[in-house]
Amino acid sequence: MYPHQREGFKFIWTNLARTIDNEKLKNDDHYGAGGCIISNDPKTGKTRLTIPFLQTYLDVFSHYREIIVAPSCLLLTWEEEIRKWNIGVPFHNLKSLELLGKLKSMLMPSTKLIGVGIQQRNIVKLYTWFKEKSILGISYNLFEKHVGGESKADVNIRKMMEDTESRIMGKFLRDISDLLVLDEGQTPRNHYCLIWKAFSEIQTHKRIIHLGTPF
Fold first, then answer.
1. Which 8-state DSSP code applies to residue 84?
2. TM spans, by residue (predicted)?
3. Checking CA distances to 55, which of 14, 69, 157, 186 falls within 20 to 30 Å?
4. From CA 29, how far away is CA 18, in angstroms rounded?
């Protein structure tokens, strides 16, 4: 990493883990919530900075479940960068039809998974992310769709119409994630928009926000 990225890594670690003392790190719950905003010019390496942080955090806290929320087009960038740097942690992109690693060997005896829709694939990805050390990637639109953030009337309508898979995905995303990365974090612009309300539903206490424009 470049010097400014190493400095950024230290900044993120200090704000989320609070300490580099191994004994104190074993009792992570003691430090509660934590987070930070990374705000600098585009193409200065925010993704490259955050990937080794997520890898290191999983090395220390292997039970943590990390989610990256980003515009659909940027999820491909995250996927490419994680593959490029070969961090040894699977990245499950919910916008992709591809199944990785053990998922592919278990569920794809041939080159195609016949008869399984996108939502069913995503349930499998969510379950694998829950059970094994990995990173989950999801778009803002998909996150909003499954987590909610509607008015009470809209919630009642959705409960009558939504299927079991959607309820399962909403439960996972709301209650199970431990660390959330928001790429293009200015997307939830105010408390009136649905994506803002969706993020207010989740239980995650540790968050990293990427902004493409410096303050």
1. H
2. none
3. 186
4. 11
Distance CA 178, CA 32 (A): 11
| E-state strands within 74-131 | 91-93
Helix (H) or strand (E) holding 121: helix 118-131
Residues sharing a CB contact under 8 Å with residue 25, sequence separation 6 or more, in sequence order: 17, 19, 60, 61
Give dist(CA 173, CA 202) in Å, integer.
7
pLDDT tens track for 156-212: 545 544 566 777 788 888 888 899 999 998 888 777 778 888 888 888 889 999 987
Nearest to 173 by CA among 76, 51, 67: 67
Exposure b/e, 166-202, CB count within 10 A at least 16 = b: bebbbebbbebbbbbbbbebebbeeeeebbebbbeeb
Rounded Cα gap, residues 93 and 61, in angstroms: 22
Q: Which comes out higher in pLDDT, residue 43 or 59?
A: 59
Tell me the torsion sign for CA atoms 13, 14, 15, 18: positive
Of 31, 85, 28, the C-alpha closest to 53 is 85
Per the structure block, which two tokens stand in for 186?
Answer: 């200015």
For 125, which DSSP code?
H
Residue with the bigger pLDDT between 163 and 151: it is 163
Q: How far apart, in whole angstroms, are the C-alpha atoms of residue 57 and residue 52? A: 8
CB of 208 within 8 A of CB of 180? yes
